[in-house]
Amino acid sequence: MEGFMSIDIFIIILATGVRLATPFLLAALGEMFVQRSGVYNLGVEGIMMMGAFAGFFATLQQGSPLLGIIVSLAIGALMGLIMAFVSVTFKAEQGISGIGLYMFGWGLSGLLFRLYVGGVTSIDGLKPIAIPMLSDIPLIGQVLFNHNVLVYTAFLLVPLSGIVLYKTSWGLNIRAVGNKPEAADTLGVSVVKIRYQCLIVGGMLAALAGAFLTIGQANMYADNITAGRGFIAIALVYFGRWSPWGILLGSLLFSMADSFQSMVQVLGINFPYELAVILPYMVTIIALAISYGRVWAPAALGKPFERGTRG
Amino acid sequence: MVEKIKQLEMSGITKRFPGVLSNNRVNIQLEAGEVLAILGENGAGKTTLMNILYGLYQPDAGEILLNGKQVRINSPSEAIELGIGMVHQHFMLVPTLTVCENVILGLSKKFFVDLKTAAKRIKEITDTYGLAINPEAYVWQLSVGEQQRVEIIKALYRGANLLILDEPTAVLTPQESNELILLLKNMAQQGNSIILISHKLNEVMAISDRVTVLRDGVVCANVKTQETTQEELAKLMVGREMAPCRREGNYSPGKIVLELQQVHAKGDKGSEALAGVSLQIRENEILGIAGVSGNGQKELAEVIAGLRKLSSGNISLNGKDSTNMSPAEIIEQGLGYIPEDRIHVGTIPSFSIWENLILKDHHRLPFAKYSLLQNRKIMSHSSSQVEKYGIKTPDLETPTARLSGGNIQRVVLAREITRNPVALVAAYPTRGLDIGATEYLHSKLLEARSNGVGILLISEDLEELTSICDNIAVLYEGKIMKVMPVEEADERTMGLLMAGIA
Ligand SMILES: Nc1ncnc2c1ncn2[C@@H]1O[C@H](COP(=O)(O)OP(=O)(O)OP(=O)(O)O)[C@@H](O)[C@H]1O
Ligand SMILES: [Mg+2]
Predict the structure, then answer these.
(1) Taking the C-alpha atoms of B174, B175, B176 and B177 in order, what is their torsion angle to the nearest 10 degrees?
(2) Which residues have their alpha-adjacent CB atom under 5 A from ion ligand 2?
């Protein structure tokens, strides 16, 4: 390996990869809940942009990244609510409503930035917190246990989502509503309520993913800071077959490839750089092509629910 | 726990849907320990009435009294709380969940689901009523009969003492039906009340105490089962005398029109569903395929229609090879197909009746000229079809999904038979049809037979098979156990063959 990549660079790539996985994990886990309940929200990218801006702006104003997180969660919940209103209550076509939400978030975040901030302004974002003891473990400590709080949150959410989905009453309701809403309905489970809840949770997690980009990574805001990550997160939900562990695998695969390509550029590693840049996207497309299968998809995905129709 | 239901009364129930008066001042009554059967033709309003009792629909007028007190049932959960359980005409189970998860769905108010305690209670219920089921199995792995049991367990688990069953035996094998009837009797003896909807008059006679007959949304009779007969009930339902259809004329088959040689094919789950099926169907012949559904029937119909690939073997239609050809080519060669799922495969549910009637010929004369639809021709064709086949509909523009089951089947039948097919595959064509519609369908199949069509009839109903088929083949685990003339097919022989005992 010497000459191509030293052990230090290797550790940096891994540690960066873990950090870069955060927004994908947050957004994709949120979208997983949404899709499990039978709705797909293509507006993730727009919610991320709003979350990114809201988190940044609150931190800039008040100097508190924690407040930034809270504000972005609230904005995310609101955007999820809008999506629920349009696609669940009014039963609008979900793909179109999602794209609408994306454009709304994109336009509004850009407008607000130009109105209230204007130029490049940096903020004091989240600081890495080294976990005592664990961060001293050679190699692993640096890779896993020296990150900011959102990184830890994202990774903890993986097993947590699994527990929620498979062990709790709420998770059972979600799985039922996403697969056979009419059955859930006849047992007194409110399809509308569950879908609203999932869209709100999904919106909050997407906004948090956006906030991570501004207050947990770049410490500033720029136009199109999300750079398509919201759409990649949606692809990762399919790749991960609607399971938290599958999504973890997909997110790491993508973020490691991304981390590698950025190091290639920064450190001038001996690897064709044009190839490196497209690597993460190629990995995703290939992985999706190999793994895609509708068999795992929630059966009611994309179908608005109406009582007493034979469709 | 609320008071046990000792008496139910629905009075003056009226429900209107756009263009249809589904229930018109309907009254029914029921006492504890009683089995009430509700009869009526397709579209008479039986399901609507039960959906109102279960809180899925709100009536436009009328009231519901439980134990003499008026109640409003706004949602299924309120019905459940009152002790009402319902087994729906179309199963309401989530296939990707386990039995246990399906049973407790919507009940658990705690944060974590407690599957262990639930499994224990399910076992108590299954022991009491002798319903064998594995609580850990996924619903998609279960046979239709087992799914039916899960539906009943679901209702009992919720403490239901008034159980509504909407055509519970329509998809069951004869043996499963008998078991269900015993179970329901047992439950009634233990003081539960039961409302049963069925088109099978022998079942109604065997199990019910009273029968209420609906016709066009109106109660037209209310009789004690002991004081009536099957013939009288049939007459009340249809409004005229009924004569069951029988095969007439000699069996004089012509040349082979459809032939399968050593056909192998995989099922949806990837395992082999057809394991070397060879069959021949001739002109002027109806060949029945008997057997418990799930033994390759669905796959058999689909390979012939070109909807499923063969892994090996040959099929020829009208003397020409049709193995693995596209459905369009097979239609062109002269195959008619009445699929099992008449709503979603047989028609495009949101399309109008006239569109569905020309679905296979819309691109050619007389319906299309220079790629333009010929509206006048289409409309005159469609209205004559609607008349000839007695399709009950407000007009030609009505979406097919709005029609009742029997009328949707008539649309499919009209389209398939009018095209003059060489061979016709009919999968469970009378499932869920009322006796009038069943009789009609049988007469049409027999008419097609005497016009020379070779027909493959897949059915679980032995009575149906023996009354109109010339020959019967028994399908078991993807293999043909035996092909025999109908005269040799008595219930015992068939029962053994269907269980895989040669
Ligand atoms: N949700 C609905 N919207 C519009 N019309 C409906 C609806 N549900 C039922 N109908 C109509 O009401 C009438 C009665 O239907 P219902 O399903 O109660 O009949 P049924 O007696 O159960 O028939 P089947 O034996 O075919 O099940 C039919 O004409 C049907 O088309
Ligand atoms: Mg019905």
Answers:
(1) 50
(2) B 47, 89
Is the beta carbon of B442 within 6 A of some atom in ligand 1? no
A62 neighbors A203 (Cβ within 8 angstroms): no
- What ipTM score was computed for the predicted complex, to two decimals? 0.88
Q: B7-238: which CATH topology?
A: Rossmann fold (3.40.50)
What pLDDT score was predicted for residue B151?
Answer: 92
Eight-class DSSP state of A122: B
Q: Quick one: pLDDT band at residue A311, thresholds 50, 70, 90? A: very low
Task: Report which of A70, A100, A51 is spatially closest to residue A203, judged by C-alpha positions.
Answer: A51
- The SS3 assignment for B65 reads strand
pLDDT, residue B500, reads: 85
* pLDDT tens, residue by residue, A3-17: 556 788 888 889 999
Asked if residue A303 is part of any domain, the answer here is: no
Q: What type of residue is B359?
A: L
CA distance B352 to A78: 41
- Rounded CA-CA distance B314/B311 in Å is 10
* Residues A94/A43, Cβ–Cβ less than 8 Å: no
Asked if A293 reaches chain B (Cβ–Cβ under 8 Å), the answer is no
Q: Break chain B into its structural domains and give their ranges.
A: 7-238, 243-334+421-502, 349-419
* β-bridge pairing B320-321 and B312-317: antiparallel
Gyration radius of chain A's alpha carbons: 20
φ, ψ dihedrals at B61, nearest 5°? -155, 165
Strand partners, B473: B289, B483
Does B398 touch chain A if contact means CB atoms closer than 8 Å?
no
Could you give the CA distance from residue B48 to residue B38 in angstroms, rounded to a whole number? 12
Question: Considering only CA atoms, which of A216, A57, A212 is closest in space to residue A121?
Answer: A57
Give the span between the Cα atoms of B477 and B494, in whole angstroms: 15
- Which CATH number characterizes residue A45's domain? 1.10.3470
Indicate whether A308 belongs to any domain: no
Tell me how far CA of residue B373 lies from CA of B355, B365, B370, in angstroms: 11, 9, 8
Assigned CATH topology for domain B243-334+421-502: Rossmann fold (3.40.50)
Q: What's the predicted TM-score (pTM) here? A: 0.83
Q: Do A183 and B94 contact (CB within 8 A), yes or no?
A: yes
Phi, psi of B360 (to 5 degrees): -95, -10
Q: Is residue A307 part of a domain?
A: no
User: A186: distance to nearest CA of chain B, Å?
Assistant: 6
Instruction: Note whether B94 contacts A175, CB cutoff 8 Å.
Output: yes
Compute, in angstroms, the gap from residue B45 CA to the centroid of ligand 2. Answer: 7
Q: In chain A, how many domains are there?
A: 1
- Asked if the model's pLDDT at residue A173 lies above 90, the reply is yes
| SS3 of B191-233 | CCEEEEECCCHHHHHHHCCEEEEEECCEEEEEEEHHHCCHHHH
The residue whose C-alpha atom lies closest to atom 6 belonging to ligand 1 is: B17
Residue A269 φ then ψ, to 5°: -65, 150
**CB contact (8 A) between residue A175 and residue B75:** no
Domain hosting residue A41, numbered range = 7-295
| Cα–Cα distance measured from residue B201 to residue A90, given in angstroms and rounded to the nearest whole number | 44
Q: Is residue A300 part of a domain?
A: no
